[in-house]
């Protein structure tokens, strides 16, 4: 894990709020998630930044040094981002972002078809929160986001959030796992395995998964925290099980299976800046991205079989799935 600008913002937010609870609310994070992130930041920097007690979060001497540098750095970075954002707008550049989801390529193709000649750039983040921040600040024009039931993205000034589809969450298993031979897996059986899970960061996926496991009065053992390729490799080698989006396409060594009873769901969301260059194209972009999603569904065998058994369970924006 490398130190990033967002980590400096987290440190300053905690100092300004005077407590992790208030800082978590301002950052739209959970207090445990923020506490875990702070521990990782302190581990990277090599010292405690705050003393945490009844008086709240008070900077240590080491923390005062970190805060003084962070507060000196951030205004320059914010100015740079604002200037480059204006320059990008002046050169007909459309900037899009995405969480790990299957809609990004369809969004890029839609933008290129609807605005011929525009240069389209893209960047990805694991969490939706920094992408939303960039949309609010005008550093992005559109983004593919995602959330879970009860943990929905909060509305933000100047940003249009449009749900595309809510789909079931599937199990991601080693190909040799006993449940890989079945049509469905059950959480009650999987909870006995070791798990690989994403970091409990500003993304609330871990919190949502934990809330579903709590209904079983069990929480899985989670010796592995990973994302993306690393998580898939941990599962592929048989070290753990995990969860994935229904549209995840199986790779050698892993198996994707629906969860019996569909206990977990994931919502894909398209977002764009209300005053940005894509605002007038919103309906067309939504339709084209939706059509691309349907094609992706067909390319995922496990999801295609599930959809056949549940023909009316998934509705896609304004398009019947």
UniProtKB/TrEMBL annotation:
Residues 1-60 form the HTH lysR-type domain. The keyword Transcription applies. Keywords: DNA-binding, Transcription, Transcription regulation. InterPro entries: LysR_HTH_N, LysR_subst-bd, WH-like_DNA-bd_sf, WH_DNA-bd_sf. This is LysR family transcriptional regulator. Pfam families: HTH_1, LysR_substrate. Belongs to the LysR transcriptional regulatory family.
């Amino acid at each position: 894990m490398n130190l990033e600008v967002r980590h400096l913002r987290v440190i300053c937010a905690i100092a300004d709020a005077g407590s992790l609870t208030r800082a978590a609310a301002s950052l739209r994070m959970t207090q445990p998630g923020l506490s875990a992130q702070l521990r990782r930041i302190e581990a990277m920097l090599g010292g405690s930044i705050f003393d945490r007690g009844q008086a709240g979060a008070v900077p240590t001497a080491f923390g005062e040094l970190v805060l003084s540098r962070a507060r000196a750095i951030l205004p320059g970075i914010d100015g740079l981002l604002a200037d480059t954002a204006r320059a990008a707008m002046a050169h007909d550049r459309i900037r899009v972002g995405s969480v790990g989801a299957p809609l990004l390529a369809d969004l890029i193709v839609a933008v290129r078809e609807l605005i011929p000649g525009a240069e389209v750039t893209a960047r990805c983040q694991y969490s939706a929160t920094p992408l939303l921040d960039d949309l609010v600040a005008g550093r992005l024009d559109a983004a593919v986001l995602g959330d879970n039931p009860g943990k929905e993205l909060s509305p933000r000034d100047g940003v249009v959030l449009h749900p595309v589809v809510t789909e079931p969450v599937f199990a991601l298993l080693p190909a040799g796992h006993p449940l890989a031979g079945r049509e469905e897996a059950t959480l009650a059986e999987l909870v006995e395995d070791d798990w690989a899970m994403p970091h409990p960061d500003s993304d609330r996926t871990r919190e949502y998964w934990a809330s579903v496991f709590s209904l079983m009065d069990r929480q899985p053992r989670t010796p592995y925290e990973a994302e993306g390729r690393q998580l898939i490799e941990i599962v592929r080698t048989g070290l753990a099980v995990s969860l994935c989006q229904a549209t995840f396409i199986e790779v050698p060594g892993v198996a994707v299976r629906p969860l019996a009873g569909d206990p977990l769901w994931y919502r894909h969301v398209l977002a764009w800046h209300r005053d940005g260059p894509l605002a007038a194209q919103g309906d067309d972009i939504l339709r084209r991205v939706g059509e691309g999603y349907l094609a992706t569904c067909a390319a995922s065998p496990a999801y295609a079989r599930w959809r056949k058994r549940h023909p009316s369970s998934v509705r896609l924006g304004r398009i019947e799935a």
